[in-house]
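Give me C-alpha cells for this 319-residue protein.
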Amino acid sequence: MVTVLDKRQPELIPRHPEKAHRPDTPVQPKPSWIRVKAGGSKEYARTREIVRENGLHTVCEEAGCPNIGECWDKRHATMMIMGDTCTRACAFCNVRTGLPGPLDTQEPSNVAQAVAKLGLHHVVITSVDRDDLPDGGAQHFADVINAIRDRSPDTTIEVLTPDFLRKEAALEKVVAARPDVFNHNLETVPGLYLRIRPGARYFHSLRLLQKVKELDPSMFTKSGFMVGLGEQRDEVLQLIDDLRSADVDFLTIGQYLQPTRKHAEVKSYVNPSEFEAYQRIALAKGFLLVSASPLTRSSYHAGEDFERLRAARQQHLNS
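Here you go.
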C-alpha cells in the first residue's frame, strides 16, 4: 500500500461550473494514515471495460471514491443509475449537478448484464437524486432490482437510495422489490445540514430508515455519515443514538475528503483511534455491525460486510 494523490479527485480543477460561484476553501494535506491503492491491474481494466461497454455510470468514478483501485481490482463496482447528473448540489459531493436527462429504459437490463459479467455475489446500486421525477426514481430502482434477480438470482442486492423527499409512496416501491439491504446515508450531523446537505432534511432521512423497518422488519437497514466537517463529538454520539433509535442494523463512519477547492473544506482529519472509539460505542448501543475507519465508505467491502451482517443477526437470534 502506498500513499497516492487520487487523480479522480483533482484538488485544483473543479468539474462543476454550477459551483464556480462558491469561494475557494483551504485544502489541507492528507495525513499519513490516508492510504489508497492505485488502480492499474488487468482486473481493474476489465472492470472498467465492462462498465463502459454497458453504458453505465459508477459512483466509484463519479464521486471520486479513494477506494476505486482496490475495489475494481476485485471487480467490485458500485452501479450509479439514472444518469450522472444530480438535481442537488451537496457541498461534499463530487457528482455533477444540473438538469438530468430522461431515464434510460434499457438501464435495468444493462446493469443486470454487467453484474453477471462481473460475477458479483453482492452488488450495490445507488443513484443520483432525481427530484425532477414524480417518484424520485423509485420504480427505476425496483426495475433494476428485478432485472438483476432475473439474470443473477443468487446475487444479493444492496440499494443506497436518495431520500425521496416529498415523493409519496416512493419508498414503498423500493421496499416491495425486496433488496437484501436498504441503505440511506444521513451524511452528517443535523447542525451541518444547511451548509453541507441543504436540499435534504435530517429528520426526514431518519424517518425514512425507520419506515423501512415498519414496512419489512426482516430487511437489513444501513446508514452512514462522515466526520471531519466540523461536527462535535457530542453531536456524533447523538447521531449514533438517533440511528439506533430508528432500528438501523449497520452503521458506517468515514473521513470526509475534499474533492476540490469549491467543495466544503476538511475541518479536521480524525485519528484512526477516534474511529475505533466510535465503533466500540456504536456496537455497545446495539448495532449488528459497525464499520468505522478513515477510508470507510458505504459500499467499501459491502459483500464481505453483508455476510458478517447475516452472521451477526443469526448470532443475535440464537443468543
